[in-house]
Amino acid sequence: MTKRSFSLAYLTSHRCTPHQAVLVAAESGYDYVGLRLWPNAPNAPQQFLIDRPHELKETLAVLQDTGIGIFDLELIRINASFDAHAWDALYEIGATLQAKAILVAGDDANESRLTDNYAKLCEAMQPFGLTADLEFMPWTAVPNALAASRIVKNAGSPMNAGILVDALHFGRSHTTLEDISAIDPSLLHYSQICDGQAGTSFTTEELVHSARCARELPGEGNIDLKGLFNALPNDLPISVEVVNLEKEAKFSNAAWAKKCLQKTKESVQ
């Protein structure tokens, strides 16, 4: 059996500073961590390393001590006024951390402009050795896997282009297993796992609340996780992304991370 690698996503360890997240990942059996070094909205929660030399030094030290790697950084939003160089500091710290990917969200309803800006983003990130992984989310301008594939293709399929499949968004968007199987494997660098109630009748507010506050542990919802991960490459790294503010409050950071990883392995292996 091909060995999968597992990354501790930001949302699973959002209570941690970057260096704490690395230590939790090492203690809990993960191979990588993901960090949110750029907030998903102004003044929204994030972790701090950019322009924090002491914290960066501390994080680099625990990465070396533990052997844990940084997989992805969050996040870039492509909106109507997008400037690919607004995130130069994120690219630079990504290279310093030897990260592999940056998560990208599409917020521009003008798909032609969104596509052009995605191509510019890939070009700007290329020198830093980072992939630009476009995540489809049903309430955004990239609502499903077909839209993500179309945007990447129309952007010219840059060498560092990517499509990110999140199990929650698969289960709540107009995306089929056939759509997932049709994604060019070269565009798949990692995936995200959690569980929840599948369906396409949720309001935007319900979708966002679940994604940011109330994801379920793998196996505790009804999303077709086995079907999804059978449709994805069997060696694709999995980012374990399970934020549930009510449930996780009863656990330490490490205990929650361990539980999430255990449930993930039970669901995909």
Describe this structure in words.
With 269 residues, the protein is of the alpha/beta class. It contains eleven helices and eight strands. The protein has one domain: Divalent-metal-dependent TIM barrel enzymes (TIM Barrel), CATH 3.20.20.150. An eight-stranded parallel β-barrel has the order 1-2-3-4-5-6-7-8, surrounded by five helices. Helix 4 links the parallel strand 4 and strand 5. Helix 1 runs parallel beside helix 2 and helix 1 packs across helix 11. The chain starts with 5 loop residues before the first strand and ends with a helix.
Keywords:
single chain; 269 residues; alpha/beta; TIM Barrel; eight-stranded parallel β-barrel; 40% helix
Uncertain parts = none
CATH architecture: Alpha-Beta Barrel
* Mean pLDDT score: 97
Secondary structure class reads: alpha/beta
Strand content: 15-25%
Number of helices: 11
- Rg over CA atoms: 17 Å
Tally of discrete structural domains? 1
For the record, what CATH class applies?
A: Alpha Beta
Distance between the termini: 9 Å
Write the H/E string, N to C.
EHEHEHEHEHEHHEHHEHH
With strands numbered from the N-terminus, the spatial order across the biggest sheet is 1-2-3-4-5-6-7-8
Largest sheet: 8 strands, parallel, barrel
Please tell me what the overall shape is. globular
- State the fourth-level CATH superfamily: Divalent-metal-dependent TIM barrel enzymes
Helix content: 40-55%
> How many E-type strands?
8
According to CATH, the fold-level topology is TIM Barrel
